[in-house]
From TrEMBL:
Transport recorded as keyword: yes
One GO-annotated biological process of the protein: response to antibiotic
Keyword Transmembrane assigned: yes
Alphabetical list of InterPro entries matching this protein: ABC2_TM, ABC2_TM_bact-type, ABC_2_transport, Nod_factor_ABC_transporter
Family: Belongs to the ABC-2 integral membrane protein family.
Native organism: Amycolatopsis vastitatis
Cellular location(s): Cell membrane; Membrane
GO molecular function, one term: ABC-type transporter activity
Membrane-related topology note: Multi-pass membrane protein
Lineage, highest ranks first: Bacteria, Bacillati, Actinomycetota, Actinomycetes, Pseudonocardiales
Domain ABC transmembrane type-2: 34-265
GO cellular component annotations of the record: ATP-binding cassette (ABC) transporter complex
Segments passing through the bilayer: 126-146, 152-173, 185-215, 235-258
The protein's name: Transport permease protein
């Protein structure tokens, strides 16, 4: 009787995740042009319309911290763009990995685990969010949107904000078995109101007190405050740490939920 030896090999935790990143990169380097609008250019157009267009009618004052309106909304738009991109890339694309293209099923038929599939998604999302932030920050530089080197920390704040939205959305997508109709509702009734009423274009102190607490629950408000705090000031050091802690907590809670959902759906 002959002994058959396995030709497979164990894949380390990080190696398996990076193999997924390599797969994303293989696709991206061929189709990056189709994602250029969402990867940095969309928030730049918002900046041009609101900062240069509408902003030309807004005088610097106490509300803007003595800054021009362009400089006031520049860090907030970076955070808002990151949140929108994160929700978009963790909704239908994640559901597609389970339901339509089923590449998650194919990958987990190899030594790569569901946790590594999810880890690869997170790493790739962080890279994409950072790239989008760099593109936006570079283009906004020519608008005169930045007042100092804090722009480097703004990019980091945008990435953290996006990741705080990525994990809860991925958890929801992993638990979605229909065609994803709920995603359209989330974009319309959660993402867009969150963008408009989380301090992006005006302080939430201008909102009625009865609904102001909704802004406090929004990850984008914490991201906006964090981005402004590290770039133009106006937010105390302890407050900056508090906003960062909330975003990390949202990321951690979403990670736990999504990690479990990936295993429950991919392990037979």
């Amino acid at each position: 009787m002959t002994t058959v030896e396995s030709t497979g090999r164990v894949v380390g935790k990080w190696q398996g995740a990076w193999l997924r990143v390599e797969g994303h990169w293989t696709w991206y380097r061929r189709h990056w042009l189709s994602t250029l609008y969402s990867t940095g250019l969309q928030p730049v157009l918002f900046l041009a319309a609101m900062g240069l267009g509408f902003g030309s009618q807004v005088r610097p004052g106490a509300v803007t911290g003595g800054l021009s309106y362009l400089q006031y909304i520049a860090p907030a738009l970076l955070a808002a763009g990151a949140a929108q991109q994160a929700v978009g890339e963790s909704s239908y694309p994640v559901l597609s990995g389970f339901k339509w293209q089923k590449d998650y099923l194919a990958v987990t038929a190899t030594p790569v685990s569901p946790g590594q599939v999810f880890g690869g998604h997170l790493i790739w999302s962080a890279l994409r969010l950072t790239l989008a932030g760099v593109i936006y920050a570079f283009v906004a530089l020519f608008f005169g949107a930045w007042t100092g080197p804090g722009v480097l920390l703004v990019i980091l704040a945008g990435t953290v904000t996006g990741l705080a939205c990525t994990t809860p959305m991925a958890a929801l997508a992993a638990r979605t078995f229909d065609e994803g109709q709920r995603f359209g509702l989330i974009f319309r009734f959660v993402v867009m109101p969150m963008t408009l009423f989380s301090g992006t274009f005006f302080p939430i102190s201008q909102l009625p007190g009865a609904i102001r607490w909704l802004a406090w629950l929004s990850p984008l408000w914490h991201g906006t405050q964090l981005a402004r705090g590290v770039s133009v000031g106006g937010v105390g050091g302890w407050a900056v740490l508090g906003h960062f802690a909330v975003l990390v907590a949202l990321f951690a809670a979403g990670w736990a939920a999504a990690h479990r959902a990936f295993y429950r759906r991919l392990v037979v």
